[in-house]
Structure formats: C-alpha cells, structure tokens
C-alpha cells in the first residue's frame, strides 16, 4: 500500500457507512485538495458497488473539511447489468462537507474506435520546470506528494508575467512511485494551479462544483494535464482539464466552476 492508498482508504462500517481519516499531507494552504477528497469518497463508493471503476463523478463542495476523522455515507440509487448509480456524502462531525453523484462501471482496456488528438504538444519533461518548494508555514503540503513539471509559459504568474489567458499545463505523477489508477486520476484532475492565475488573478480559488469522467485505464508513467478556461467574469471562472497517459490516450476529462482567488 502506497502513502496515497493509505491516505484515501475507506473502512467499511456497514452497508452505507465508511470510516475515513483525512490526511493533512494533501492541503493547499490550509484547505484539503478537492481531488484528494474525491478520491477518498470514491474509494467508499466503488467498494459498495458491483462494478470496479468510477466512470463519472459530479461533486459539490459545500464546505472545506478539516484533516482528521470523517465518514462517507453511500446511498445506492440503481444498479443494472453494466452500470450503477450512487449518491455519496463526505460527513464530518455530523455535517455534510461534499455531496456527490457517482456512476460506476467496469472498463475494459479496449482500443478506441475514435480518438481526438490533443491540440497542444507539450515540451519534453526535462524541458519543463518544477514550482519552487513552498515555505513550511504556507501549509502547501500537497506539493510534497506530487512530482509535477510545468510548461514554462503557464507559470509566468510566479514572476509577475502571466500570459493573460486562463491556462495551466504540466506533467504529473505521484512523488512516491505508483502507477496511475482511477483514484490518482481523481487527484490529477484537480492538481493544477487554478488556470485563472495565468489570467492575472491570485489567491485561493475554491471549487464549487466539479464533474470528471474516467475515459480509460491509464498506462504506467507520466500523465499529461492540459488545463484551460473559457470565461472569467463576476468573480467566477471555469476550468477544463484533459488528462492523457504516457501512451497519449485520453484517460480523464473534467470541468469545474470555481470562485476567483481571494486573499
């Protein structure tokens, strides 16, 4: 079991309830990363499902849960021969923190009958750059769990030179050697710095709603994350992320609605 597996494990209490312990190592300046929280929730949902993979997840982030004990409550809505539907809540001290609708199925490693090619070609990983190590007092513990190499133009905001477009691109893998799986992908779709940083905004940008789809089981090796946005307006922005595996296949895609950073 890797550190990430341990940090996301869900222990079955009964048919609808799982105990979890939220790990402080996945924080971004205090709040826990939304992708990490989804991975925790999905462990419980998949365990309670007759199928192996979380193929579609829509999560609403009502509150920011604290590190420590919590519970996941799962309600099975319907199960058929190839797909099942469930509602899940991450609950802490009796208060729902995240509500999600999750569709599970069992994916096969088939060759696609059609696959759109990526419209952007990343530089080689050795030509990309890491973000500077955060100061200990920043509370950015998530950085230590990940190995990310960024396309240089998309982190120009670090030096006061944002591109002016909502975008973020990077190679991604866990810091501890681990082949990517659906739970790693749940983390990956929310691992990039908010794309609005490149449009000139700064500060914590809390996710309100995030939907992501597992499209294929990823091959071992680097994942490539391509993030973009279409509209920044009235204190809100959208973010879309495309995840491709080391073979170049589309393995996950997401869209989220978030508040423009503040503070």
TrEMBL record:
It comes from Nonomuraea montanisoli. Coiled coil: none annotated. InterPro entries: ACOT8-like_C, Acyl-CoA_hotdog, HotDog_dom_sf, Sec_Metab_Biosynth-Assoc, TesB_ACOT8-like_N. SUPFAM superfamilies: Thioesterase/thiol ester dehydrase-isomerase. This is Thioesterase family protein. Residues 125-260 form the Acyl-CoA thioesterase-like C-terminal domain. Residues 25-106 form the Acyl-CoA thioesterase-like N-terminal HotDog domain.
């Amino acid at each position: 079991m890797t550190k990430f597996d341990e940090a996301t494990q869900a222990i079955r209490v009964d048919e609808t309830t799982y105990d979890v312990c939220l790990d402080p190592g996945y924080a971004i300046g205090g709040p826990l990363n939304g992708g990490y929280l989804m991975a925790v929730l999905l462990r419980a949902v998949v365990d309670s499902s007759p199928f192996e993979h979380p193929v579609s997840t829509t999560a609403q982030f009502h509150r920011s849960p604290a590190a420590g004990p919590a519970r996941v409550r799962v309600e099975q809505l319907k199960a058929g021969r190839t797909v099942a539907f469930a509602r899940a809540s991450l609950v802490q001290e009796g208060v729902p923190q995240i509500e999600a609708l999750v569709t599970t199925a069992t994916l096969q490693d088939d060759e696609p009958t059609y696959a759109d090619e990526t419209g952007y070609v990343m530089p080689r990983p050795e030509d990309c750059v890491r973000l500077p190590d955060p100061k200990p007092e920043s509370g950015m513990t998530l950085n230590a769990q990940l190995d990310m190499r960024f396309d240089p133009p998309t982190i120009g905001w670090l030096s006061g030179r944002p591109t002016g477009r909502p975008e973020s691109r990077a190679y991604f893998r866990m810091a501890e050697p681990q082949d990517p799986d659906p739970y790693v992908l749940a983390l990956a779709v929310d691992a990039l710095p908010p794309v609005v940083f490149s449009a000139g905004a700064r500060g914590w940008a809390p996710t309100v709603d995030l939907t992501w789809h597992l499209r294929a089981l990823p091959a071992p090796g680097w994942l490539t994350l391509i993030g973009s946005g279409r509209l920044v307006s009235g204190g809100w922005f959208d973010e879309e992320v495309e995840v491709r595996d080391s073979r170049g296949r589309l393995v996950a895609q997401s869209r989220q609605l978030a508040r423009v950073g503040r503070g």
